[in-house]
Write the structure tokens for this entry.
Amino acid sequence: MRQPEFMAVGALAVLLSTVACAESKLPLAAPLVMEDKVADRSVSEWLMRMHEGSRRRAYVGTFVVSAGGNMASARIWHVCDGEQQMERVESLTGVPRSTFRRNDQVITFLPDSRIAVAERRESLGLFPNLLQSADSSIGQFYQVRATGRERVAGFEADVVQLRPEDNLRFGYRVWTEKKTGLVIKLQTLDGEGRVLEQAAFSELQLNVPVSMSKLTRMMGNTEGYQIQKPEMVKTTAAAEGWELKTAVPGFKPMSCYKRTVGAAGETRSENTVQWIFSDGLASVSLFVEAFDPRRHGQPGSLAMGATHTLTRRMGDWWLTAVGEVPLQTLTVFAQGLERKK
């Protein structure tokens, strides 16, 4: 289960690394045509519009995440220079932390413990796996509907709803800044349309002069910190002896890693395999490790906002399934996972 301070950084990565493509090519003197264009966009057109924009602009803002009765906030700075993306996230609630990202390089400073965690993250941004599959079938599993315009953080925003076609995934309501397509608010919805989780800017400044060189210096200033680099090796599920005997509709394997695991201050040689799946919007991670009765309790499930966690024993192994999907989806994954060696 995610803690509130982690939710802020996670949702910030969701909303802040991804935004819209270029401005509409239609002339400004044709507002009625523009309204028709907004209403007629397909699922793919809306998602592509949400996917690229932060590559083209700098912004600073305060971001608030609420889920499961918890609330967290953070201050963010984002800048781009061609293909180079940088951002800084300062938590305003919970445990003090500063997270810096340059492309796939991420370092998180924890001032209370004087620890800095350096890692690489391939998947960042809103719907990070959207463009990783050429045969994307998102349109088979989601319907899209433009629902109007609203103001968020002082900006006019187009509102679009993504409704799932089955009960294996949640829906989304997304607010994108009218001119740029920047995602400025996101809600995750259950099957009844209730809000499970919300992330939104409470204050936002676009096209502000954010210095990439200054962020680079801050990111590299690790003096006085103990650097931790979690060991993560790319692998395949087959190489680790696992397969999914029954595919979960719409979800495709994206990547697989072997991680060194251990509690804080503890070093162990055991590895955890993380197998990541996505339908282009929602994602699921399967963590498998050797069963240890000293660490692994009773199987069960947890929920915080849109994130569900399912744990169970599989013979000599312990499975933890985590995803922004309904619990029944994790159950389908768990039932389909099989040891091959």
